[in-house]
Specification:
alpha/beta, single chain, Glycerol-3-phosphate (1)-acyltransferase, about 35% helix
Length: about 210
């Protein structure tokens, strides 16, 4: 009930209506990967999913940020059921890839931000290798690109109080790692898949 209420409040506050351009919401293993400009990103993407899909979808978040303080820790653990990973000093015993794969299981899905941090530019920066390793170990999972637009203006990096604005969550066509596809090529293709979801009127900043 708390999750449903939070999702409804988030949708009302941000005006974020999901646009499914390349697929439809389904209960199946997926990795939703998106650009990352705000602390609101995971919440808005999560809230935009239908309830039955949202209940099986877990955001992946940085342990060092979300375990800082009771409030953050409570939200991450008790509301989002987030997967908290070590992003600064991963070791064999706390391998984030294995943690994420175990969380997916047969029906679960993940929300990930392959940039590895928040960036305020119009386009995502180069993706880190985590998405590639997930795709390589679980080739059956659909990788769904997602463009989050305007969220950096709701809660920019360094700000504490959010501002209500109209945002968009655009879901693209699922992709997979192609046989023999090099890591660099795959990550560039995944990044481009996110940028390609931007409406032409917003301009293109591909590099």
């Amino acid at each position: 009930m708390i999750q449903s209420a939070l999702a409804m409040i988030t949708r009302l506050f941000t005006g974020a209506t999901p646009l499914w351009k390349g697929c439809q919401p389904e209960i199946r293993p997926r990795i939703y990967f998106a650009n990352h400009t705000s602390h609101f990103d995971a919440l808005v993407l999560w809230a935009s999913l239908p309830g039955e899909v949202r209940s099986l979808t877990r955001p992946v978040a940085a342990r060092d940020y979300w375990e800082e303080g009771f409030f953050r820790n409570y939200i991450a653990s008790n509301i989002f059921n987030a997967i908290l990973i070590e992003r600064k000093r991963p070791t064999r015993s706390n391998n984030p890839i294995e943690t994420m794969l175990n969380a997916i299981g047969e029906q679960g899905s993940l929300i990930v931000f392959p940039e590895g941090g928040r960036f305020s530019g119009p386009d995502p920066v180069e993706f880190k290798s985590g998405l590639f390793h997930l795709a390589k170990k679980r080739p059956d999972i659909e990788l769904v690109p997602v463009l989050l637009d305007n969220l950096n203006r709701i809660l920019p990096k360094g700000e504490m109080l959010p501002l209500p604005l109209i945002c968009s969550v655009v879901y693209g066509a699922p992709m997979h790692l192609e046989p023999g596809e090099p890591k660099k090529v795959f990550l560039a293709r995944a990044r481009q898949a996110v940028m390609d979801l931007r409406e032409p009127s917003h301009g293109s900043h591909s590099s």
